[in-house]
Amino acid sequence: MSKRRKAGAFAVLLTGTLLAAAAPAAAQLQWSSKDGSQSFKVGLLGQMQAEEADVAGSDDTSKNLSFRRLRLIMGFNLSDKLSIFVDTDSPNLGKATAGVKDTGNIFIQDFAATYKFAQAFQLDGGLLLMEQDYNHNQSAASLMTLDYGAYTFNESTPTTSRTGRDYGLRARGYVADDHLEYRLGIYQGVRGTNNSNEFRYAGRLMYTFFTPQVGLFYRGTSLGKTHSLSIGGSFDKQEEYHNYAGDFYLDQPLGGGNSLVLQGDYNQIDGGKFLTTLPKQDDVLIEAGVYFASVKLQPFIQYASEDFKDPLRIDETRDTFGIAYFLAGHNDNVKLSYTRIEPKHGDSRKQINLQWQVFQF
């Protein structure tokens, strides 16, 4: 197919997606006990995605129609002290790898049971999204861009985590009128021979100016509704492995419902002799976007880099340019992006993604 015909096909797909996405978002589903002491809420997240990407070391172009994420989400309030959040996922459902489509593997993505002794001291237990940087802890449903940074979860596979999640127990609390958050947890980590390794420890401090954040997950673009500046730092350590991070997140209203979003994350990672598949590296993520309320559009850019300390490994950067159309906020939106992948050695590659998100919770 010629480049002109491929561009035309992609435009037709974009138009069809926009028309489909124009349907209004459904109402929230929630049930409560007669006395109001208990409640149950259910929702979903679907991110249907079209992708066209150059194949490394080949003249071929990979093309896919699939689900980037497909999640069932549930929340339980069992008392004024005890709550449970749980969701499932089947990521990349239908996406082909080497010609074989992913037929689906539904699993528990998050399970967080929270007991709130007080606002300043809460305990989270279960399968938890770990501390790390701001982007690592954002909700996938409220991202400004189509996805997290390309290197945000680099530690996951070597630490036998599930997309940044591990099994453990964490203390979490909010002080200084909820502006200062702390998180400190103990996790399974890599158990090793005879399950005898030391446990994994992680912690985080974040100060949020203006509008505080007091939830399990950090918010993404608020589409001009929230004024927020968060500055944070974190550590993740098990034996010789460590990941130290620093980050900031700005959501600045500009008047008239418009807003500016700016995020920066830096991770210094070293698996040491403990995790030899996780080489010493510095990872950077920077993204920015401006929301125009009158047309519900948010152009954005994202820069991500992976800088290895071993000269035998190949550094890489990714530059992404895109635009999001928020028909009904995060409940119903369409995003289109173009990414240029630049390895330090070797040919650059391009990737085009179109995503339609439906979300309710």
Please give the count of helices: 1
Average pLDDT, rounded to a whole number, is 93
Low-confidence stretches: 3-12, 14-26
Helix content: under 10%
Total strand count, please? 19
Strand content: over 45%
Largest sheet: 16 strands, antiparallel, barrel
Overall 3D form: globular
Secondary-structure element pattern, one letter each: HEEEEEEEEEEEEEEEEEEE
Class based on secondary structure composition and strand pairing: mainly beta
From the N-terminal CA to the C-terminal CA, the straight-line distance is: 41 Å
Q: Supply Rg.
A: 21 Å
Strand line-up across the major sheet: 2-3-4-7-8-9-10-11-12-13-14-15-16-17-18-19
Describe the protein in words:
The chain is mainly β and 361 residues long. It is 5% helix and 56% strand. The protein contains 1 helix and 19 strands. The strands form 2 sheets. It has a 16-stranded antiparallel barrel with strand order 2-3-4-7-8-9-10-11-12-13-14-15-16-17-18-19. It has a two-stranded antiparallel sheet with strand order 5-6. The longest helix is centred in the N-terminal third of the chain and has 19 residues, at 3-21.
List the helices and strands and how they pair.
Layout: H1 3-21, E1 29-32, E2 39-54, E3 61-77, E4 82-89, E5 96-97, E6 100-101, E7 107-118, E8 121-129, E9 165-175, E10 180-187, E11 200-210, E12 228-238, E13 241-255, E14 258-270, E15 281-291, E16 297-308, E17 316-330, E18 332-343, E19 349-360
Antiparallel strand pairs: 1-2, 2-3, 2-19, 3-4, 4-7, 5-6, 7-8, 8-9, 9-10, 10-11, 11-12, 12-13, 13-14, 14-15, 15-16, 16-17, 17-18, 18-19
